[in-house]
Write a structure and sequence with these properties.
mainly alpha
C-alpha cells in the first residue's frame, strides 16, 4: 500500500512539472507565425494571421493542445516545418 501511494505522488509531481513545459510551445509557434507573415499580404498569410490569433486565444484559455495544433497547421500551410 505505501508503495502505491508513493507511486501516485511521484506520478502527480512529474505531471505537474511536465505540463507547464508544453504550455511554452504555443507562444513560440505563434511568434513563428507572426514572423513569417509580418511582411506578407497574400491569402495564405492572412489565414495564418487569423490562425495565430486563434492559437493565442486557445493558449490563453489553457487549451494548449488545440493551440499547438492550430498553429502547426498554419505553419504547414505556409510551408514552414515546425
Amino acid at each position: 500500500m505505501p508503495h502505491l501511494a508513493l507511486t501516485a505522488v511521484v506520478s502527480l509531481v512529474v505531471l505537474l512539472l511536465v505540463t507547464p513545459a508544453f504550455a511554452f510551445q504555443c507562444p513560440k509557434l505563434v511568434k513563428q507565425l507572426q514572423d513569417a507573415t509580418g511582411q506578407r499580404f497574400d491569402a495564405t498569410a492572412a489565414d495564418a494571421k487569423l490562425a495565430a490569433g486563434k492559437a493565442q486565444g486557445l493558449h490563453a484559455a489553457g487549451n494548449h493542445a488545440e493551440s499547438e495544433k492550430v498553429a502547426k497547421e498554419a505553419l504547414t500551410k505556409l510551408g514552414i516545418k515546425s
